[in-house]
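Lab notebook, bench 4. Still working through the backlog of constructs that have no structural model yet. Next entry is a single chain of 365 residues. Request: give me the structure tokens for it.
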Amino acid sequence: MAGYLYPNELIEYILWQPVMFSYSFLISGADLFILAMIGYITKKLLKAVPFLTITAVSFFAVLLLGPLADLHQPQRAYLIYSNPRLISTPSNPGFSFISLHAIIWLVTIILGIIFLLLFYAYPMRLRAESAGRLRPLYRAFSLGVKTKEDYEKLRAPTIAVSCVVLALSTFWGVYPATLFVSQTWLIAWREWSLLPIIFYADTFVASTAVGIFVYYLMKGRKMEPEVIDPLLKIHTAGSISVAGLLGLQILLWNNRLETSLQGLSILLPLIYVVMILMALSFLLSLASLKMRVLSLLVSIVALVGVATNKWNVIVNGQLINRSGEVLSLQLPAGWQLLAASPLLAAIAIFVLLSFIFPLEVKEVG
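Model written out:
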């Protein structure tokens, strides 16, 4: 055989499969950071900042485990930092967009942790006054803050950090879709013109769904309107946006689904399923503003919709080769563990952080 061989021309295993879970759930860590930073800066969602921040750090910290699981030589992963190739040279022309975002990820998670420590300085001081064996730990995390006046002095640097995290998280929120649209050998990704916008919208759907889910587990029927209602309203806008954008994409494909884009027809069944799930999540969100007990159902339906959408794009999208033919689905052995391991790692970090840092803070300055 001569010429360039495209990955799915040889009917190889699906690429990036574990990233489907990483990017459908864990990339929401970027948008959770966005919500937490906006909530802190504006003081409009201040009571939600603690659990949003802890969830954001937990999810964002393990974000690169998905791509790492797909590398044939994961032991060489450190080269993305030691030899990032951000500047074009005669021996290595071009610019590594992936390396740039890997560096942005590192800076974002470090600043996100700094924000967490600054935000919790005074609550840790309060815990240190009443805790037992963990008192030295809480005192260390109080960063020398002893009074509310000391804590107020930290607000200016905390806002500065939150602004940087907000900007960097926005970059990461749109990054995954750029990976797909840049892979021009796959017809599904090349012709999915609204993919970047859809990915950004459903990442907000995932982040608000996770936030709603965590808050429901924290408070149950005692959820406070000033916390849950803004999350529901943001979720409402995101879910209906995803449904509408998917419908618009079908219209843009139009009659070509019967000719040059015939292979894309295999994507339609799950697109319709996602549209229904997002519309249902939208309606449940509206109902939850009156009956907040439905909030748990809102998050479950939305997360199923997001996962289904990512599967359809990332996995089913690779079944269509460059000639438009549909290949059979083959997944590597043990793919379930590879796909779930980053999510399980995020949950483990969340449990650890929530043991140290309270998910609900009454004294926030």
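Notes after review: The chain has one domain: 13-356. The two ends are 68 Å apart (CA to CA). Flag for follow-up if needed.
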